[in-house]
Amino acid sequence: MENSKTKIALVTGGSRGLGKAMAIALAGKGIDVMITYHSNAEQADAVVAEVESLGRKARAFQLDTAVISSFDNFFDDITSYLSSTYGIGTFDFLINNAGVGVNAPVLQTTEEQFDQMIDIHYKGVFFLIQKALSFMNEGGGIVNVSSGLARFSVPGYGAYGSAKGAIEVLTRYLAKELGDRKIRVNVVAPGPIATDFGGGAVRDNKEMNAMLSSLTALGRVGNADDIGGVVAFLCTEDAKWVNGQRIEAAGGINL
């Protein structure tokens, strides 16, 4: 797609928290947005309305990113929407944000919990990218979402953190393999964020919030919009020479 054409981004898990902030920040950069939601269509529709209020087009689609067998139908739906709305069934940016957390020590992690982390944070992302690349424009980009927990260790997040570590390695492989299509691939690693992720503990548990803030150079935990703007930046021409990089947006935690 030429630079003069409207750019379009697909954000998984875009109905709340970080994904919502990403969608709004992308719209602020003049990018149209498609979001996925797991179960809450009402929240997703509210994000669509907010993006539209900023003058950009938006649409929400239901998707469970752990169910790889659903991906073909999902891309049928979005390419049909793209074709009818823009006259072309392709888009520019994929942001792999959807996720859930598991807090359990390695010795107590069940196979079911482990499989959930791998399916959502690694296997699902791997094969969603594989499917999406058939519909992505040359010169676009992929942003994967990791975690500070892939760099530093907090007991209880072994399965989650190691799955995110896998995504960081995959990002570098993708950046190299997709270079001939001029598709940039980067990873953003948030630190602790005050959202409802993981039951909202960072936001709602005052003791945890204070402890994490004390470990952070800027003296607080993050907010969703601290991350949304970083992701949006990576989908602009300002980031055209940023590729294969891990950007930790965490206020300087555990330096």
Give an overview of the whole structure.
- With 255 residues, the chain is an alpha/beta fold.
- The chain has a single domain, classed as 3-Layer(aba) Sandwich (Rossmann fold).
- It is built from 8 helices and 7 strands.
- A 7-stranded parallel β-sheet has the order 3-2-1-4-5-6-7, with helices on both faces.
- Strand 4 (91-96), helix 4 (111-132) and strand 5 (136-145) form a beta-alpha-beta unit.
- The longest helix has 22 residues, at 111-132.
- The N and C termini lie far apart (40 Å).
- The mean pLDDT is 94.
Short description:
With 255 residues, the protein is an alpha/beta fold.
Topology (elements, then pairings):
Blueprint: E1 8-11, H1 17-28, E2 32-37, H2 41-53, E3 58-62, H3 71-86, E4 91-96, H4 111-132, E5 136-145, H5 158-177, E6 184-190, H6 201-204, H7 206-214, H8 224-234, E7 246-249
Parallel strand pairs: 1-2, 1-4, 2-3, 4-5, 5-6, 6-7
Helix pairs in contact: 1-2, 1-8, 4-5
Specify the biggest β-sheet.
Answer: 7 strands, parallel
Question: Which shape, going by the Cα principal axes?
Answer: globular
Helix-strand topology string: EHEHEHEHEHEHHHE
CATH architecture: 3-Layer(aba) Sandwich
pLDDT < 50 stretches: none
Strand order of the largest sheet: 3-2-1-4-5-6-7
N→C terminal distance: 40 Å
Radius of gyration: 17 Å
- Count of extended strands: 7
Q: How many independent structural domains?
A: 1
The top level CATH class name:
Alpha Beta
Tell me the fraction of residues in β-strands, as a range: 15-25%
CATH topology: Rossmann fold
